[in-house]
From TrEMBL:
This is Isocitrate lyase/PEP mutase family protein. Keywords: Lyase. It holds the Pfam family PEP_mutase. The keyword RNA-binding does not apply. It comes from Roseomonas acroporae.
Length: 300
């Protein structure tokens, strides 16, 4: 079931900051932080699961179980990347139903051609706007709960210009999208135009490490008309750099004795994060029951 708290937060005017999660360790860490939502990134999930570029290689089957696991393993509402809906209108219906059944709270569908390309990279091509509007209508009809939010993304800015991207954003909102996502605006001025010309909750994609869009503060984003800021790459970029540094130290030194303080998570803390105390308590309970001669049967 979709989590109603995300829709309620948007209605209440809360600005949503959502970190990118890409595996269950990142999901568990982020879930404890107190964010209002988590963003399950397609780039990071495809990279961590398949080790390939986010270029339309991953299928619905590859992704739905992982998105469901993120949602079911988190207490925080999950916004999930669903690329193009993995095909045509029938595929979109199937994708929406699968993601919603898995416990996702919001699904992001984009208007790229198949196979899609990662946002903020060159060569993205879009389908006709009216075709995408039909996808949004199908997505809205397919969901079981109004708490399951439809995010319509357009990649038209990079190839067709900002005017066309704004036109598409308005059209997708009219088709029923709960949230509009104009991908890759290239300046604060462009973002101000988007905020002023599209009457819908808006999502800003903040790609750390060299994205096409300036990363504005949440205060500025809220002031110019945005409602959600996602940081899809933050987690996997941070983890990749940390791994490079730790592995390089091991290769150079031959052991880990001189790793700088604070480089590693404490092993006991990692055990707690992953839920080992519950496992140990379970084992202890049933080991004692066994020693007592079979639990309930022994009591009889």
């Amino acid at each position: 079931m979709a989590d109603p708290r995300l829709k309620a937060a948007l209605r209440a005017g809360e600005f949503i900051v959502a970190p990118g999660i890409f595996d269950m360790i990142s999901a568990r860490v982020a879930d404890r932080m107190g964010f209002s939502a988590l963003y399950a990134t397609g780039y990071g999930t495809v990279a961590s699961h398949l080790g390939v570029p986010d270029a339309g290689i991953a299928t619905y089957t590859d992704m739905v179980s992982r998105m469901a696991r993120f949602a079911q393993g988190s207490r925080t509402p999950v916004i999930a990347d669903a690329d193009t809906g993995y095909g045509g209108l029938l595929n979109v219906r199937h994708t929406v139903q699968g993601y919603e059944a898995g416990g996702v709270t919001a699904i992001q569908i984009e208007d790229q051609e198949v196979p899609k390309k990662c946002g903020h990279t060159p060569g993205r091509r879009v389908i006709p706007a009216e075709e995408m509007a039909l996808k949004i209508e199908v997505a809205v009809e397919a969901r079981k709960s109004d708490d399951f939010l439809i995010i319509a993304r357009t990649d038209a800015r990079t190839t067709l210009g900002l005017d066309e991207a704004i036109r598409r954003g308005r059209l997708y909102r009219k088709a029923g999208a709960d949230i509009v996502f104009i991908e890759s605006p290239e300046s604060e001025e462009e973002m101000r135009r988007i905020g002023g010309e599209i009457d819908a909750p808006l999502l800003a994609n903040n790609v750390d490490g060299g994205g096409r869009t300036p990363i504005l503060s949440r205060e500025t984003l809220a002031a110019i008309g945005y409602n959600i800021a996602i940081y899809p790459a933050l987690g996997f970029l941070a983890v990749t750099r940390a791994l490079e540094q730790a592995y390089a130290h091991l290769l150079r030194e031959g052991d880990t004795n001189a790793l700088p303080a604070g480089t590693l998570c404490d092993f006991a803390a990692m055990n707690e994060l992953m839920g080992f105390p519950e496992v140990w308590a379970f084992d202890a309970k049933w080991a004692k029951a066994g020693q007592d001669g079979g639990g309930r049967q022994a009591a009889e």
